[in-house]
Amino acid sequence: MPAITGDEYIKRIDTLQSNIWYDGERITGKLSEHRAFAGVMKSQAALYDLQHQKENMTFTCEKSGTGIGVSYLIPRSVEDVKKRREMIQEWATHNGGFMGRSPDYMNTVLTSFAASLDLLEGEKKTFPKKLRDFYEYARENDLSFTHTFISPQSNRSKLAFLDDEVTNARIVEKRDDGLVIRGAKLLATQGGITDEVIVYSNPGTAEEDQSYLFSIPTDTKGLTFVCRRSFVESDTPLSSRFDEMDTVVLFEDVVVPWERVFIYENVRAVTSLYKEGKFIPFTVHQIVSRQVIKAEFVLGVAQSMVDMINIGEYDHVQGKIAEIMRGVESLKALLYKGEGGGTLDEGGVYIPDPIPLYVAVSEFQAFYPRCMEIVQQLGASGMITLPSERDFSSDVGENLTFYLKGYEKNGKEKVALFRLAWDMAMSGFGTRQMHYERFFFGDPVKLAQNLYQMCPTERAKNRVEQFLQERS
C-alpha cells in the first residue's frame, strides 16, 4: 500500500473508536467531526494529499516498488538528507510550522530506530528484527503516530526513586501473550488522532520495569487518552486549523503483544538507542527544518504588521525586525552546516552532523519566545482591539472599517492581520506554542549540558596552547 491520501487518513482514524475523553465525557461518533479535532484532522489530511501532488514528497520503496513518504527514508547520502528536508519543509510551509507533531516527526523517530538496529544486536530482551519489520510495515501502510515518554510530574526530586507510589507507566506482568502495562504517561500530542502510539522510556530511566520501547494501535483495550481544553475558536486563523490536542495517556493493564515489543527491562538498550543511535541527528534535523519555516512565517507576520501601520522608519522597529532576521538566517546556516557536515557510518547511512543542529534547537528555545515578545510590542494596542468578523458584517461594520484602518488598508484587512498576530503570540493557542517551543526536545538546561558534553573543544584548546608556546 503506497502513501495514503487525506480521505484514507480520516477514514482510518474515524474507524478506530478509540477511548478519548474530553471535558468529562467520552467522545463518541466520528472524531473528525468533533469541534476539538475537526480542524487539525482536516489540516493533517491536507498534508497526506500533498504527498500525491508533489514529486519530492515520495520515494520508490526498494522492496515493494510503491511510493513511500520521504519522512520514512533512511538517508544514504547528503542528497537524501536534503530530500528529507525539502519534504519536511513542504509540509511545514502548508501549516506555517505550527504543527510540531505532523506525521513526519514520528516517522523520522521510527526511521532513526530502524537505522540504529546494530546497537541492539546481542542485547538481552531486545528484538531488532521485530523493530525492522514494524518499520517496514509502518512505511508500507503510511501509518501515523503519536508518542509518549514523559513521566507524570508527581515527584521530580532527586530522591523520587524512593517514592513507593509509582505513577509512571510500568511493566506489571509478563504473560504468554505480551507485556502488561499500568500507569500514566505524558505528553501525547495528537493523542487519539493517529493510527498508533509509540511508547518509550525517557533515556534517564533507571528502573527496569519502566524501561521499554513498543508500539500499539490507538484503540488498544485499556488505553485511554484524556485531553486538555481545546484552544479552537471560530474566529481564529491558526488555532481553528492547527491546534494539535495534547493528552495524558492512561494504561489500565494494557496488554502489548510480543510482536509489538522491541525492548523491555533493559535500561542500557533504551539509553543506547537514544544517545548512541541515529535518534538525535535524525530528529533534530527534522525539528530545525520545521523551525526554519516557522521562523520565516513569524518574520512575515512581523514585517506585515510594520507595513500595515507604517512604522518602518523608526530605529527600534528596524532593530526588532533585524533581530528576527538574524535568527532566521542563523537557523538556516546551522541547518545547512548540519546537512553538509555529515558522515557515512559503516552501514552506509548518512548521518547529519548533530552539533550545529543541536545548537539550532537550543537557540530556538529562547529565540521563539523573544519573537513573540517583539510581535506583541509591534502590535501594542492593536493586539487588543480586535472586533470579530460578525462585527464587520453588522450595522457598525462600516464605521469599524474606517476607524480601524491601517496604512493604505481598510479596517477589516488590518484586523485580520492583527488577529493572526494575536493568535500566534497571545491567544491560548499562541501561548501553548511558545511554551512548546521553549521545551521542545527537552529542558533547556539539560540541552545545554548535552551540548557541552557533545561539542569537541580539543581543537580550540590546542590553538590556545600553540599560541602560548609561540610566545614563550
Automatic annotation (TrEMBL):
SUPFAM superfamilies: Acyl-CoA dehydrogenase C-terminal domain-like (SSF47203), Acyl-CoA dehydrogenase NM domain-like (SSF56645). InterPro entries: Acyl-CoA_Oxase/DH_mid-dom_sf (IPR046373), AcylCo_DH-like_C (IPR036250), AcylCoA_DH/oxidase_NM_dom_sf (IPR009100), HpaB/PvcC/4-BUDH (IPR004925), HpaB/PvcC/4-BUDH_C (IPR024719), HpaB/PvcC/4-BUDH_N (IPR024674), HpaB_Deino-type (IPR012687). GO terms for molecular function: 4-hydroxyphenylacetate 3-monooxygenase activity. Signal peptide: none annotated. Its EC number is 1.14.14.9. Residues 5-263 form the HpaB/PvcC/4-BUDH N-terminal domain. Coiled coil: none annotated. It is an enzyme of class 1 (oxidoreductase). It comes from the Bacteria. Keywords: FAD, Flavoprotein, Oxidoreductase. The keyword Oxidoreductase applies. Residues 272-468 form the HpaB/PvcC/4-BUDH C-terminal domain. The keyword DNA-binding does not apply. This is 4-hydroxyphenylacetate 3-monooxygenase, oxygenase component. The gene is hpaB.
